[in-house]
Amino acid sequence: MDVNSSREENKKAKIALKKEIGLWRGVSIIVGIIVGSGIFVSPVGVLRYSKSVGLSFVMWTIPAIFSLLGALVYAELGVRIPKSGGEYSYILEAFGGPPAFVCLYVTFVVIGGVSCAANALIFAQFMLEPIYPNCEKPSSAVQLIALLCLCKLITFLIQLLICAINAFRVKWATRVAVFFTICKMLALLLIIGFGIYYLATGHVQSFQEPFEGSATSPGLLALAFYQGFWAFFGWNYLNFLVEEIENPARNLPLAIAISLGLVTGLNIMTNVAYLAVLSPYEMLASGDTSVAIAVVRSFD
């Protein structure tokens, strides 16, 4: 009996997720999750509530620091509790099953559902941009397209395909993540390139007297912070894959630090590009979902 039980224990000990995520794949996963609709939507909100160019950049820096501090805490938790599952695993370890279940439910059903709805609305706005290029989009049309995005069969099939790729082979899933990360970064680098061109040709009017008219209301500053923080959402998701990371004690903190530094640089440079190509008034007039399109159209 002792021999059989020891064999069973050895078999159980050998059952584990494959460690196929290295440092740079980890970086690409975090960057791919963070870089999304936020950087195309948040800049207008941050500028609107901060009321000046200079303060808007301060309000971009504060969420970046806040995210970095939170990410480093998660990195420490990931090293001390090397289990996949993110905050679910940490709350389960500390407080037990019921609080961990509530956390998981809120994360995926409430926060995840709201995030999907917001992204669907933003997608609908961009879809209607060619039809309504310089005017307000009908709210009924936006809501209908967003609803179709959430309920359509093709969306379900795409999600099913992604789940199948993740279940079949981690390397394939990370390759897909790397591909989409590269696509997102190329889009941002294109906008940054436009901004560099405009700065090189002397378009610096937006940066003169940068703090003039800055907001002082705590409520407005809180709204500006919230708008900027949305563009950094997602830095905690690598912790859901801790058991699949090679040498997590080294690679998890490094991946988090590198990716947040990269995303912060991209976000700030993209905002510089927006304000180099457009004046603050033009940027605010472009609407929450049209600032990137307005930058591209400036070259027509």
Question: What is this structure's SSE topology?
Answer:
Layout: H1 2-14, H2 23-34, H3 38-50, H4 53-80, H5 87-95, H6 97-128, H7 139-151, H8 153-168, H9 170-200, H10 218-230, H11 248-277, H12 280-285, H13 291-297
Helix pairs in contact: 2-9, 2-11, 3-4, 3-10, 4-10, 4-11, 5-6, 6-7, 8-9, 9-11
What does this structure look like?
This protein has a single domain, classed as Amino acid/polyamine transporter I (Up-down Bundle). The protein is 74% helix and 0% strand. It is built from 13 helices and no strands. It has helices at residues 2-14, 23-34, 38-50, 53-80, 87-95, 97-128, 139-151, 153-168, 170-200, 218-230, 248-277, 280-285, 291-297. One of its GO terms (molecular function) is L-amino acid transmembrane transporter activity.
Features:
300 residues, mainly alpha, 74% helix, transmembrane helix
Provide the structure class. mainly alpha
The total tally of domains equals 1
Pattern of helices and strands: HHHHHHHHHHHHH
**What is the top-level CATH class?**
Mainly Alpha
Average residue pLDDT: 83
Distance between the termini: 79 Å
Most strands sheet:
none
Based on the structure given, which CATH architecture is correct? Up-down Bundle
User: What's the β-strand tally?
Assistant: 0
Helix content percent band: over 70%
Number of helical regions: 13
Backbone CA Rg: 22 Å
State the shape: globular
The CATH H-level superfamily is Amino acid/polyamine transporter I
**Unreliable stretches covering 5 or more consecutive residues:** none
Tell me the CATH topology: Amino acid/polyamine transporter I
* Portion in strands: under 5%
